[in-house]
Please model this.
Amino acid sequence: MLNLVNSEHIDSLTPSNPSAAPPRQTYGVNAGAIKIACSNCNLRELCMPLGLSPEELEQIDGLVASRRRVKRGAQLFRQGDAFTSLYAIRTGFFKTCVASEDGREQVTGFQMAGEVIGLDGIVSDSHSCNAIALEDAEVCVMPFDRIEELSTQVHALQRHVHKIMSREIVRENGVMLLLGSMRAEERLAAFLLNLVQRLHARGFSQSELVLRMTREEIGSYLGLKLETVSRAFSKFVDDGIMEVRQRHVRIVKPDALRDIVNPPPCV
Amino acid sequence: MLNLVNSEHIDSLTPSNPSAAPPRQTYGVNAGAIKIACSNCNLRELCMPLGLSPEELEQIDGLVASRRRVKRGAQLFRQGDAFTSLYAIRTGFFKTCVASEDGREQVTGFQMAGEVIGLDGIVSDSHSCNAIALEDAEVCVMPFDRIEELSTQVHALQRHVHKIMSREIVRENGVMLLLGSMRAEERLAAFLLNLVQRLHARGFSQSELVLRMTREEIGSYLGLKLETVSRAFSKFVDDGIMEVRQRHVRIVKPDALRDIVNPPPCV
DNA sequence: CGACACCTTGAAGAGGTTCAAGAAATGTGG
DNA sequence: CCACATTTCTTGAACCTCTTCAAGGTGTCG
Model:
């Protein structure tokens, strides 16, 4: 299937946890000092490498300099900001977007818990896109110089950083294919399948999802106007492929959706 | 301006060298052993980090396991191939493209001397796109495990790898903006400006260029049909912005082209 | 409850595609 | 080196998808 997004399979996640799945905190013996570290974060499998030794795990814990809350609608960073850190999303949902000089805006991605944002800033030491929280969020701030330093010691971390960046490149290749060659309904179908797949990997339903973004934001991401997105939704509902109530979507016929993205040969 | 591509400024390159600029070889004392190494390759500033110590330079030389010639039309790697190496282009011109299951194809980029391709393969240890030479080419094969190993010792190399990947991410963001929000003529104008800029950084003319790809390949990259590309070219010629004879393009009014990409506010 | 943001739907219009034909360049084999 | 086949490019006309403009509906939050 079209690989639109960071879609590494994460079979190790607790399956089918339909709740909002915030990172569980370990309320240990010492109730006063609640330690939220990578080593006991249930998103570790998503944003950190696997198979680390206990010592390595401890080093990795030092990567997260701090945590930062971002209110819905607020920006984590914006175009032109100095680049210092990558951010691992603990909770919440983000969009990244670029703007051209004449004011055109393009959503370049939607990111959820366990995904890493900020990679755009590395090349020029300043961010080239905006990251905006679509719901109240919390991120782990990982100073990039620490990442680079620790990478020289922990090989798995080095690999991991490379893979995260490569994955983003591959994701964007998929978006280019979508934007360059698909029709409106195909785009929306691919988008929804990708979203639901990533949510499923995080323990949510395979068929139900709540969109965190507006039709306009979906449209920007897919290179469509909001009216076109709305019409495509309506078409899917008419065809019995899904149920839509505002931002609540329930996919009734996932196979039909897949057929829209990849038409079966010689129907 | 819209950053469509690996467009780091490389002022250190020999300016205005209108010849084909193959990497100059150092014909030293020992004429029998012509050594083509990073340390004496004039593309070093493009594909390798700057400011290395002599020892580091020597280590870097060991990165290139071999060189490989790729005939025009041949594939350097294809979707599904095992990933082992990154490739630095010494001479020639490539396109990379992805194909979906139902046969749709999307050109994801055009690469020229000094640029690095293969980054897509890191995440899954297999390539997710095809790299095809558009003219006879030669590449430096850099095994990725060597790169990772050497990165732990040569900090500048580590930085460089990160920057190359980040630059590719930023480039693709720019392409998404182009595909998502620009009209046909804007897309072609942005594409030509980007091409000529990169060529200029390599010592070629600011105003003249020879396209190495067909209208169809340009169209695929820009999300347009070849006829639309052709019509846009004709429009530019009619408007006196450029002269076009087949693949030979001469930009007469670069400012007019820029205005097409970024319309001046309140004309 | 009213203001506001968001979503849906219709109708007209524009930009790009498709189909088709011919011209120009390139490559091939005799 | 020329003739012929092939690929590539250009241009026209009809068509189609998506956009634009407009109006009304729905949901949410102070």
Chain A has a mean pLDDT of 87. The radius of gyration of chain A is 19 Å.
